[in-house]
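Next up, a specimen:

>
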Amino acid sequence: MIPRIPVTPPRNGATLVEVLMSLLIMSIGIVSVFSLFPIGILSSIRASQLTNSKLLEQNVVDTIRCFPQIIECAPRWQPNIAYGGYASDPPTTNSNQRVVPTPSSGTLFSPTNLYFDCSVSGGGTSGYREPVWTKISGQTNQDGPSMSAWTWTASRSPGFRDYPPDATKGAAYRRSVYVVDPLGYWYSDDSSSVTSLATNAVRTRFGSNSDGTAAYQNSISNAWALPRNHAGFTKDQAATLFSLPDSWSVAASGVPLTVSSGAVQFDTTVDLSSLSTSQIPRLTLQSVDGKYAVTRNIDVASSTPTTATLVSGQAIPTVFQTSYGNARIEVFSRRYTYFLTVIRNPDGTADVSCPIMFNRSFSAMDERAFDATATAGSDTITVDVSTASPMPLISEGNFIFDSINGHWYRIVSYGQSSILAGGVDIVLDRTPDVIGNLGIVFMPGIIRVYKFSL
């Protein structure tokens, strides 16, 4: 008789060890997938910022080509025009007592980096013939057909500090360096109303001291931070021109009670009392089916908490006054903004750098400058941050600005200085353009710095 071999009945489940192993494998996969989410979000944000910065950079180039006075920071000479007499230094104003020559045919800027100030007390009317402008500071020019015509004096301008001489081209070859920053000028948290560089206020210079209360001055060379110029733009003009055009956010929305040609009235659920002129508020009114819309600017001074009064000359079409849908109140948020750092050559050409910023705070603490030293042949600078409170944002990949000489660099790496107590050694992306004393600004929020020669 053959013995029967017992057969193990099939199991109805898994052992505890198998369950634990399955959970371990699954948890590793889930954690790996979840770790991709923050990386993906950060990459998406960065990609969005780079895309918008590139769009804004293209706007900047086109704007400069259409309005080169942004770089020249002074009006061009015109015949038979009443000009004011030059009485004092107006470095941050686009006054009618300082002019630049008209550019030659086919060129973008005036043929010199000099400025010409009226030398006649009380001013007068210019002649009919443009002078043959001198290129030597201090010399005078006269316009018109006679010696009695109006006189202009060439100036390197106390409002635009000279760049150090180029040793390869001789001491007579001098460039000018300055910052065109209307937004920083008008929206600075500097409470002073002074507009003259003689006071060295935070508003009129790009770079503040360690506590943000005054303009920066290098403790070794005594050089002041670069002049900040508004290039003749008003506060509202600066907010529009030096920001990405579509940086708008919704402040309020709802279906209006009544709509007239010059005003839109809402119920009490919509509060417009917080609107300010600096926000450049606008109203967008949709048709009933949402297929059409009309946008008009709001006159804040004439508006009430429930009624948006429109700017004169921007009437709402009749078709929207009788049949309308939802309305939005939008404000300009200035998320993406820019300013320009300029180095003008004696022939009038310019090397322009354009930093694109995200959510700029306009705080003097973000523009603090610190003494630094650069040595020949080395891409490492030593920055004295011993007096910094709080410490500036120092991070690999961030951009830094030399507020004395007007050059931008990028941080490759950094570490504690071995030769200066309270100092930081920073390795730059290239050898510094200027050797000696620098004034380094660690400005947060810079997405990219674009450079172009014009």
Observations:
- The CA atoms of residues 118 and 301 lie 38 Å apart.
